[in-house]
Amino acid sequence: MNYDFKKTMRISLCFFFVFSCSQYKDKSAPAHLFMEGAMSLSQISPKWFAAGEGDNFSSANRLIPIHKFYDVDLNEQRRSQRVRVMVTTPLSSQFLYGVHIASGQFYQKHGFCEADNGLESNSDTLIKAPVSFGILPKVINHLGEAQRIMIFGKNKQLEKYRPDQFFETRIIGAFIEHYCPFGNCANSQRWRSSVILVGIIENNEKFKAIENIYDLRQTQEWKKVENFLLYSRGYNQVFKKRYHAYRLGAIMPKVQAWRYLEEKTKRLKWSDLKQMRKSCQKIYNYLWEKVYQDSAVELKLKSLSRAQQDLLRQNQNFKKGTFFYQRFTNSFNKFYDQYGVCTKYISFSEIEKNPQKHWFLTYYTALHLVHKLGYTYNCESNQWFERTRDKQNKEGKFFENCLSENIDQAFASAPKLLEKRARKKMTSYEYISMSKSFDGRRTRVESWVKKTSLAGKCLTQNDNQQLPFYDAVMWKPKSVLKKSTKENL
């Protein structure tokens, strides 16, 4: 099988960095005509996985699953200020849910914290969401994450809402949320900022007169939500001192909110997504078929004794790429940027169809995530080290001068390093097998998801099936040479 890697790189990176906004030609009626009885729930139809290629994600009952991020169009209506949304965390939920973009599944992140966190709060009841949290389909923000929205109000239709449905809401503005990932963020540059859109349920008596976010800010509901956002999702802790992890920034009126949506977000077009999937699947298949699978020489060496291996190596010169560690080192450096983009947006393998491929790419992804967190592997000491700040942004090759046993050790230890960081309340990733949507249904994620570094008892509360697969599915060494044989190609 031949792969055009230059084309794959170009397509992958263009998909991530290039975005063109759609043109608005909506002729919908003004917003006030939608106030009463406008909301209706619509069922999401499976499209992404139905049209998939290669190893696709599927549900346990073998039905074609829904991709909750790709299978719905935004359908923005500028004149009526309406967009389609999916609720990830409903009103009164005790848990915060997120969306895993690659699999298109909602998963349970953690519970909401009470006010007992050592920080001042205006409420003692923060453990239930006072508002619905959702996402806009096929829209990502400047951080590469699903665009979030808060939805005020409730009605009988919303009480029946399920995770496989969507509806339309009216945008009345937005606000900027600042997040401090660790420490006290005394340096303002360490705060991460994102824009959260604000919408309202149309046929709701309490909010039908609300025309903009400034009107909403005068209500008691906004004050409750503001307090909830500041205190319910944990805090930073340095030794025994606690610091705010969130703060609210500037308010954006609806005109500015729409301008942000048009100009600062990325709309994922169906044609681009399909091309992205095709390119990423080529990389995944190459890693599995050309990198992981044993070469003819490796297969032969496996059947030989140590003495026979030494004799063969003395009488034969092996070309570069004969051994796994050589193929891996070359591909890891060659596709480093593209692989990071691919795993964020495209699922790589269905575990039931090809479990061996799934676990190999899961370990491979763990190595990638460890590097993303700022580590590099020292093959002389067989240990992971944090890269110094002056080398963080400099290009360089990973796993230089590593031999087969070094690469095996790196694969085996990468997931353990991620778990160690998580235990120390440092930004990390955890592998989730199964999770839950807010309706109690099990969802299959089978992937790495980001884990918060914040503190708080509520952050350990979830119903996820987290698999320490380095124990359950141990890395099988790829070195084919006996221990006394040196690889000095």
Distance between the ends: 27 Å
Unreliable stretches covering 5 or more consecutive residues: 1-6, 15-37, 57-61, 484-489
What is the percent of helical residues? 25-40%
Total discrete domains: 2
How do the strands and helices of this protein lay out in sequence?
Layout (H helix, E strand, L loop, with lengths): L4 H13 L24 E2 L38 E8 L5 E6 L4 E7 L20 E9 L5 E7 L3 H4 L5 E15 L12 E9 L12 H4 L3 H12 L4 E3 L2 E3 L2 E8 H10 L2 E2 L2 H23 L3 H7 L3 H10 L8 H11 L1 H10 L9 H18 L2 E4 L4 E4 L17 H20 L4 E9 L5 E10 L13 E2 L2 H4 L17
Question: How do you describe this structure in short?
Answer:
The protein has 489 residues and is of the alpha+beta class. It has helices at residues 5-17, 156-159, 213-216, 220-231, 254-263, 270-292, 296-302, 306-315, 324-334, 336-345, 355-372, 404-423, 469-472; strands at residues 42-43, 82-89, 95-100, 105-111, 132-140, 146-152, 165-179, 192-200, 236-238, 241-243, 246-253, 266-267, 375-378, 383-386, 428-436, 442-451, 465-466. The strands form 5 sheets. It has a 5-stranded mixed β-barrel with strand order 2-5-6-8-7. Strands 16-15-17 form a 3-stranded antiparallel beta sheet.
